[in-house]
Amino acid sequence: AREHPHHPLALFDRRFGRWMQHQDQLTQQLRQALARAELRLHLQPQFDIEGRLRGAEVLLRWQHPHQGLLAPADFVPVAERSGLIRPIGAWLMEQSIALLAGPLRGSGLRLSVNVSVQQLHDDTLVEQLDALLSRHCIAPGHLVVEVVESLLLAPGMEARLAKLRALGVEIALDDFGTGYSSLRYLQELSVDEIKLDKAFIDPLHQAEDAPLARSIIAMVRTLGLRLVVEGVESAHQVDFLRRQGVDLLQGYHLARPEPPEAFLARLDARAAA
Length: 273
Ligand code: C2E
Ligand code: CA
Ligand code: CA
Ligand code: CA
Prior knowledge:
8-stranded mixed beta barrel
């Protein structure tokens, strides 16, 4: 019956077939994207509670020849499945370090780069970073690597993160509170920064208070870790977070991800102020 064109499974097969074809096509195009210089990095500014610029998160974009500017959700899964995330991740790291070594040198600003599971499992990541950092003489504490919580449970991860920290790279725990987070990990693992997921401050769109966010913030502060809140979309949230004493804010209300030129223009504005 599945062969009958109107059978629900036949429909599924056709859709799945098309999806597979699309994935294959994307993989082919992504393979060429690096060589054709179609990948971009965007920077989303991070501010302290006094409104001073303190750094940025590096976010990957793909200037696709036909589909316009693609966000990571459109192609990072394909990159991960195909293994292309490794060369892409290496490229992104090199670009980020070049920014720190060049236009950002002396600015005191930090860059945070997302690192996927596959990259962290790659034994050469630490060597790559070591080579890049020493070639460019980046002072410790200016490069932050963002990892998601679930990664910390993988065997051998602790040792790997320790090696990164020994290079002067800081570790941020991304999307905190959405995964396996166990408070125990926070104490046992050596991370420098916690990024509180947007979901925790979303209730502030409707309510005056966000008790869960409030208590997590208090806890992270007790541990003495740097706390970044992401997904800040309103002035009300900023007020709340300022009162709670978080360290850094990131979100559309303050600034959207932007091309490096726009971000660097902020430095000139800052110098002129
Ligand atoms: P993430 O690490 O949680 O990054 C934050 C995402 O939230 C970004 O989406 C950013 O544009 C978005 N965002 C920032 N402020 C707001 C806000 O106020 N409201 C809302 N609704 N969204 C906000 P983006 O750039 O689409 O990235 C999505 C995810 O893709 C990232 O989530 C990260 O997991 C992944 N990603 C991005 N760049 C890279 C990369 O270079 N390598 C790897 N492996 N993954 C990356
Ligand atoms: Ca991130
Ligand atoms: Ca995040
Ligand atoms: Ca996320």
